[in-house]
Amino acid sequence: MGMTMVEKILAAHTGKEKVKPGELINAKLDIVLGNDVTTPVAIHEFDKIGVDGVFDKERVVIVPDHFAPNKDINSAEQCKFIRDFAHEKEVVNYFEIGDMGIEHCLLPEQGLVVPGDVIIGADSHTCTYGALGSFATGVGSTDMAAGMATGEAWFKVPETIKFVYTGELNEWVGGKDLILYTIGDIGVDGALYKAMEFSGEVIEDLSMDHRFTMSNMAIEAGGKCGLIEPDQTTIDYIEDRAQREYTLYESDEDAEYEEVIEYDVSEIEPQVAFPHLPENTKGISEVEDIKIDQAVIGSCTNGRIEDLRLAAKILEGKRKADNVRLIIFPGTQEIYKQAMKEGLIEIFIDAGAAVSTPTCGPCLGGHMGILAKGERAIATTNRNFVGRMGHPESEVYLSNPAVAAASAIKGEIVSPEEVM
Amino acid sequence: MNLNGQAWKYGDDIDTDVIIPARYLNTSDPSELAKHCLEDLDGEFVDKMKKGDVIVAGKNFGCGSSREHAPLAIKAAGVSCVIAESFARIFYRNSINIGLPILESVEAVAAIEEGDQIEIDVNSGKIKNLTKDEVYQAEPFPEFMQEIIESGGLIKYVAKKVNK
Questions:
Q1: Which of A61, A243, A373, B110 could covalently link to A391 via disulfide, CB atoms 3.0 to 4.6 Å apart?
Q2: Which of A25, A29, A37, A196 should we substitute to test contact with B (largest number of B Cβ atoms within 10 Å)?
Q3: What is the ipTM, given to two decimal places?
């Protein structure tokens, strides 16, 4: 019996020929990541272990992105605490604002995470890097602390569910719609504890940016990770960025899957997830009369250059509705610069958007776009839980960047076709 | 370890954003976090619960964000144990790591009603409903996790290993 990609990567990091689902293993870590919300807790725990330094100064990555630029005094203290720790422990990959980006846009862009890696991050969307063909999973602060100290973490080898996407993509349908549709189908715990493997001709044709969006939301189905087999698209993305050697793993033909789920994408239209769970999805044609107060385009889910290009294509020469606040936040400084070079930022500003420095702020109701009681937003982010973007009586609808941009223009949730 | 408290019952897919909203994540002080435990799910929870009480919930408890502040807030609020049909995996890991007792039991969740007095033997996974005079059995922890729990959490477990 062959092995899945996940099994191969975990075996290689455990010094074993083979691992099986259900097996408990202790794996070597290639990268340990934390942000300004999770790292302070990790540092307190790290200090209790009794080691002098981190296991590898180049393999710990700390990114103040959630409440940075510092939103208040407490946040400033938290950011200072992690900055001081990074300095004291000589952590090479600490990213200050100005260099910083949203962690899951930043790490792949900087070539810090590469195919074949085992990565833990004290942030649930660490699963994003599965798009490169690595095993990447979100953990809490205490696991981050143990990982920083030892360079290892324990895992239960997960079963894998394979998702096969075939057919022709409809216009305005991309990675975000595929993953929302999938979550809508299997539910927010449909892949609980499981590895998700996204495959098929549609995935083979997807660009890296769309692939990152899909892997990013594996956690929204309860998944431990969400992998895509590396191919020429992966190599083209990574070869000039990779800061380390990388290994390309493929699942064996006779690998054992817990389940194989097939989707004909020609039946999938742009998706909108209604409050208050990402599984509450509807096709855009079923969405009627949902007025919005705010549209948010960006985040670790949809803050990459292709997402911005898509939004700009819709917004060019148009203006947002008067009663809508449009907030666009590129994922990293590089993406921001690229968007400037391509004239996208000018299009956004002319459309009446507030363009923000990279930050997780609006997505998790941190800062830079909080919703008031009773307000409603469409967002290209990843969660629409109660109170996610602000007041517990506000509402978040999730969509792709084209739908969010079109909705900003109309003042209600609409298909991009209605404004083009 | 025997725990005893009153049950507070909630539904499926209770996410970590409602357990501790992001607006309170600018601190990691457990006593501060405890003041806002479950605030966006049940604004009165902190006022009405007593030390030792038990949260009983449906499937996928603790889904969403990896914030360890969620089990920290629950623990610091004085909740002695969370019983759910199932837990989201990061929350499950975090709870084991920080020493918040959690138990999985579909049977217990179906039978326990809000206000029932519950007694729990964490080691054996035996859940007694004193109000209804019933006993339910939770899923046992794998041996390795039992080791972490018995060490007093992941950090003590790791510290023992690295300082050998």
A1: A373
A2: A37
A3: 0.96
